[in-house]
């Protein structure tokens, strides 16, 4: 597997990958999530320019080999995972884990944070297996509170959500 910074020419493919990765939400009654528009090209391009957009390719895989991507941003001294998505054809190959571990390494030893759906098997339970722990409301930083407020404005709180954190290795 190859994990590297994204290239501008890949941005449209990342949007397609995101749409495909969201499709399983249909199966659990979360149609609004499944049909949510992927990040706009401008958002992806801004992350690319900031050096906060990674892609994963698996050699010899189906199609063009684009297996996943991860977008992050600094939030209150942590590396906040804004989005991590894996193409369905590459599910169950630890690609999400590899992207997260690379973001941790690239993040300069800072802890990782993310927000996610509590009860979706490939969300909070998955991240818990990767060493993330749920944060109590009293542990939320101002930046995480702002992210959660924005998610609520978007209607994501129709399903239980939470913030999670993984401490830096070492």
UniProtKB/TrEMBL annotation:
Q: Highest taxon of the source? A: Bacteria
Domain N-acetyltransferase: from-to ranges: 1-151
Transmembrane residues, as ranges? none
Q: What is its EC number?
A: 2.3.-.-
A GO term for molecular function: acyltransferase activity
Which keywords, in A-to-Z order, does the entry hold? Acyltransferase, Transferase
Family annotation (SUPFAM superfamilies) = Acyl-CoA N-acyltransferases (Nat) (SSF55729)
- Quote the InterPro entries the UniProt record gives: Acyl_CoA_acyltransferase, GNAT_dom
Q: Pfam families attached here?
A: Acetyltransf_7
Q: Which PANTHER family match?
A: PEPTIDYL-LYSINE N-ACETYLTRANSFERASE YJAB (PTHR43800)
- Name of protein: GNAT family N-acetyltransferase
